[in-house]
Amino acid sequence: MKKIFVGNIPHSTTEAELRTLFEPHGAIEQVSIVTERETGRSRGFAFVEMTDNGEAEKAIAALNGTELGGRALNINEARPKTDNRGGGGFRGGRPGGGGRSGGGGRDDYRGQARQPREPRW
Question: What's the order of all strands across the beta sheet hosting 42-50?
Answer without folding.
Answer: 28-35, 42-50, 2-7, 74-77
